[in-house]
Specification:
Largest sheet: 2 strands, antiparallel
Number of domains: 2
Strand order of the largest sheet: 1-2
Shape: elongated
Distance between the termini: 58 Å
Number of helices: 5
Structural class: mainly alpha
Length: about 130
């Protein structure tokens, strides 16, 4: 298997405050260091902090939800629910066992996206949804 050193990036995993600069080489070619990388759709940071991945997931889920909301504005509730379960929910759940949100801020941000779906599916205003 051939590797292209020009397309490679090195990530040094550490949680230490003082990070020692390590220079990586592939043969005689220098490989630049990166602070994050994407592997199988999950963004992994060199400090093993999942904030970048949670923000990426939130953006992607919000885009998908707003697309469904624009497209199915006048659809019936069952169609809206199926579209949410097929498009938005998998984005929120993909790889959650590995990156599961561990801070209250991340959990509440993910819950906000999930709470918007029932208000859309059941044609409720946000004020009415809070009462329920």
């Amino acid at each position: 298997m051939k590797r292209n050193p020009g397309e490679c990036e090195a990530v040094n995993f550490t949680q230490s405050r003082v990070k020692e600069r390590i220079r990586f080489y592939f043969g005689d070619q220098f490989i630049p260091e990166a602070s994050t990388f994407k592997y199988l759709g999950i963004i992994i940071g060199s400090d093993l902090n999942w904030a970048d991945h949670v923000n990426y997931t939130l953006r992607k889920a919000r885009k998908a939800l707003h697309f469904i909301m624009r497209t199915l504005k006048k659809g019936n509730n069952n169609t809206k629910r199926l579209a949410y379960m097929a498009v938005v929910r998998p984005v929120l759940e993909y790889g959650a066992f590995s990156w599961g949100p561990y801070t209250e801020v991340q959990v509440s941000a993910l819950n906000r996206v999930q709470k918007r779906a029932p208000t859309f599916v059941h044609n409720m205003s946000r004020i009415h949804a809070k009462v329920m």
